[in-house]
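[Help] Beginner question about ligand-bound structures

Sorry if this is basic. My supervisor gave me a protein sequence and a SMILES string for pyridoxal-5'-phosphate and asked me to "get the holo structure". I don't really know what that means in practice or what format the answer should be in. Inputs are pasted below exactly as I got them.
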Amino acid sequence: MTGWSQALRAPSMAASDTPTFTGNRGLQVEEKLIFEQDAPGRCGVDLPEPPPHNNRLGGLARCSPIGLPGLSEPQVVRHFTRLSQKNYAIDSGLYPLGSCTMKHNPRLNERLARLAGFADIHPLQPESTVQGALELIDTLAHWLKVLTGMPAVALSPAAGAHGELCGMMTIRAALSAQGDARTRILVPESAHGTNPATAASCGYAIDAIPNNARGRVDLAALKAKLGGDVAALMLTNPNTCGLFEDEIVEIAAAVHAAGAYFYCDGANFNAIVGRVRPADLGIDALHLNLHKTFSTPHGGGGPGSGPVALAAALAPFAPLPWIVHGDAGWRLVEHAEGAAAAAIGRLKGFHGQMGMFVRALAYMMSHGADGLRQVAEDAVLNANYLRVRLADALTQSYPGACMHEVLFDDRFLKDTGVATLDFAKALIDEGFHPMTMYFPLVVHGAVLIEPTETESKASLDQFADTVNALAARATAGDAASFHAAPRLTPRRRLDETGAARKPVLRWRPNAVQRDAAD
Ligand SMILES: *Cc1c(COP(=O)(O)O)cnc(C)c1O
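Answer (accepted):
No worries, everyone starts somewhere. Holo just means with the ligand present. The predicted complex, written as structure tokens, is below.
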């Protein structure tokens, strides 16, 4: 972020087509970094001089200035208010990012998470003083067990990818307890990048399984790859093409017949929550993204939480701590001994993301079992509504109904000179966050749209009208306007590769941030 300072100081970057004196674009204000607004000696608070006192810091007292910018209170408030408005959020509009389930975060959840009994406790408090918090965690685990049909849930993983790590470490521990060290993990080509990354970080070799013509795992290819050295299959269901793996029961049977475990990436649970229990599909381990399916904020809005549901064969290896109920009430099992002797250890300091637990449980209990089922049904209905509304203008990758997200590719842009990226940038000018682009990798120029159940028909219609209008403009030969997009944002096209490869993470006074990407 600080790498932008040079551009901010030189309004020419953004002002080339901004005909205003200030360089501002209406409510979008060009402003200096907060450190550059420094006026030495200026201060937002006015405290009396402290009375004479004995300095007990000895040689540790600071002798140089502290280096904070001198700012007034209104300057600080305006700066951070403007900064917060530069971000696009689910609170500002439709956020159709496929695979990410950007749904509305009910304010009821926020209200409950802020209750002092949840927000002001500390994980090192004596257990007797946090009985309610421990009971809440256990109640959340209970809901997750009922929804998945699985007997155990590990709650500490801090995100989906962390949950994958937890699941795969658990599988590795179970296999090694059987004296059966296996070396290979099967991962479909359409998988999220975190799946092979997780398998690799657990020391496994990754073997890719191709998709069939229907966008599902090629069962024959899968069977051909199974063998005595395969530790697990990692499969996403519904998969990243937005399709239900309809041969999943047969897939599970084949995996189990080979002595391997079946890991399911449950990031897309929003499509099936309340309708399908993963245990009934033969799944042994599955992570759930509370920040996707159960509406806790994400994408810059808060930490994630990726609990892992485990089958009975894997439960003894679940990471610590475990929460158990005994004569003295709720208690944490923190050491790998007794019943927990086989636990894989800790994955995280303390017990997990408490604020997310409160929000997710509030979401579940306010919806109830029937409401959660309706979440899935409405999410699938909304995605299919968009699928049909966009069917004439865009090219759907796999025909037929989809689950909670719909996958198109760039065939509709063929010979227009417009790429998926240009199309997405034009959508920004229209006030929408773009859909997921270029993922999954199994189709060319992917356009993956997930509206979620929290969008109204009116908002879906406005989005569909916009996408259809843009597609018409692209096919009418107006490539130039797409190449120039976005025109109306504070910055135009950023050197994203440069920003990722050569990030400038620290602001230094008077330094020329020459290498910084805009
Ligand atoms: C989001 C997602 C993940 C990773 O989850 P994080 O919480 O972002 O770590 C894994 N797989 C799929 C299919 C996802 O959509």
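A couple of things worth pointing out: The mean pLDDT is 93. Residues 99, 159-161, 192, 194, 236, 240, 265, 267, 289, 304, 306 surround pyridoxal-5'-phosphate (CB under 6 Å). Feel free to follow up in the thread.
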